[in-house]
């Protein structure tokens, strides 16, 4: 009668291989979850900024041309120039308030989004082939749209880019209640 003496070397190697495959799979899943969380946080920040700017445009609709001039890319203008008045000590004229609103959005995009971009324009067709695009139609009756995006990455780590500027537009919010 023969008594089993323990595990063979092959059984141990197979067990280690199965464990290694499980650990690699778990690590990949964790990395994917972290990347999805980061993208979700950026999207949430962009939505909040677009909504805030839409409200500011609605509240100061008489200064629409100041807002419509906003086309900011943090990679081109890393530090936005502050407006003449920061409206801290005195009452602010509507034009100065609009300039401050534009500056605040630029600062938020620069500090919160990786090489972000923001644009306010008239655009009747913000979406093209299922993708949000930066170019604007600028048609007189088109709705005012706030577009915000950032330079993201694909799951494999390569830069995520579009054909227009390299910055993928992530959020577009129409400003309701602003007359053409």
From TrEMBL:
The chain crosses the membrane at residues 6-28. Keywords: Membrane, Transmembrane, Transmembrane helix. Pfam families: N_methyl, Tt1218-like. The keyword Transmembrane applies. Residues 28-103 form the Type IV pilin Tt1218-like domain. The keyword Membrane applies. This is Type IV pilus modification protein PilV. It comes from [Empedobacter] haloabium. The lineage of its organism: Bacteria, Pseudomonadati, Pseudomonadota, Betaproteobacteria, Burkholderiales. The gene is pilV.
